[in-house]
Amino acid sequence: MRESSESLSRKEILKSSTLLNGLTEDQLSQLAMNSVIAYAEKSEVLWFSGQKVDFFGVVGTGFVKMTSVGPNHQEITTEIMGPGQVFGLLGALNGMGCPQSAKAVTGSWYLKVNKSEFLPHYHSNTVLREHIFRRTSYRLHQAFDLIAHLSVGTVEQRVAAVLLVLTKSFGQEKDGGILLDVPLTRQEISELAGTTVESTIRVISKWQKRGWVETNARHILLRSIDSIVNGSKKL
User: Fold this and answer.
1) Which pLDDT tens digit goes with each residue over 88-117?
2) Smallest Cα–Cα separation from 162: which of 183, 176, 175, 143?
3) CA dihedral (83, 169, 105, 44) positive or negative
4) Is 176 left (phi over 0), alpha (psi -120 to 50) or beta?
5) Contact 130, 122 (CB under 8 A)
6) Tell me, what's the pLDDT at 155?
7) Beta strands of 49-186 (E only): which ranges?
8) Are 103 and 46 in contact (CB under 8 A)?
9) How many CB atoms lie within 10 A of CB 44?
10) SS3 for 27-63, per residue?
11) What are phi and psi of 12, to 5 degrees?
12) Which residues contact 140 (CB under 8 A, 6 or more apart)?
């Protein structure tokens, strides 16, 4: 069911992004004024690799994944973007087509930020440029690690990789573990991991029996990340 776009503020979505927190208040206001809130249905492709679009996105609610095509024409997930995260910015900065495809994992509201409106702020704001460089470098390291696991790993390693990447962005420390407070279904986790729902349920059930994770509705508590990582490596 769609969340009403009226409950989302364009400026609040921009402010929720740590990648863009080098923007001044005036720049935020100007960008918000010229941005548009859009909705993507689950599995909807926002753009294909190489396609030129006049905007980049900031996730308001839901999840968007960035994908590339592997040597055997398989879809490989390279990044998982959730609330407050920016996708497609590289294509805006280099003036070329988007190097990866963008696809909604869940029904998602996102902000379409016009590239031509953003670039003057980027070029005139040294703090913003330096911050984007640092954050983008960090995200590239994460993306390479995720690609390595999702392209050649076992089913258990791929599910573990997805959960670990999500905890780095959306994990909340709780007594006894880290709560992955994101409303992803087993179906959506399996899609991100490139496997079947049955395999995902089997993996998570095994971890539950071993006391490594607890599940409650659509939330997952990771009680032993080390066990999940090390247990997956032994397979």
Assistant:
1) 888 778 777 788 899 998 899 999 999 999
2) 143
3) positive
4) left
5) no
6) 87
7) 55-61, 64-69, 75-81, 86-87, 101-104, 108-114, 171-174, 177-180
8) yes
9) 13
10) HHHHHHHCCEEEEECCCCEEECCCCCCCEEEEEEECC
11) -65, -40
12) none
Q: Enumerate domains of the chain plus CATH numbers.
A: 7-151 (2.60.120.10), 154-233 (1.10.10.10)
Phi, psi for 211 (deg, rounded to 5)? 80, 15
Q: CA 168, CA 160: separation in Å to the nearest integer?
A: 12
Phi/psi of residue 35, nearest 5 degrees: -105, 165
Distance in angstroms (rounded) separating the CA atoms of residues 146 and 153: 10
CA distance 37 to 23: 19
If DSSP codes are grouped into helix, strand and coil, which group holds residue 71? coil
Distance CA 123, CA 80 (A): 27
Q: Which residues contact 93 (CB under 8 A, 6 or more apart)?
A: 119, 122, 132
* Residues 33-75: tens digit of each pLDDT: 999 999 999 889 999 988 888 999 999 998 898 888 766 667 7
Tokens of 185: 């279904």
pTM here is: 0.75
Measured CA to CA, the distance from residue 117 to residue 60 in angstroms comes to 20
In sequence order, the β-bridge partners of residue 45 are: 103
Tell me the residue type at 100. Q
CA distance 102 to 183: 20
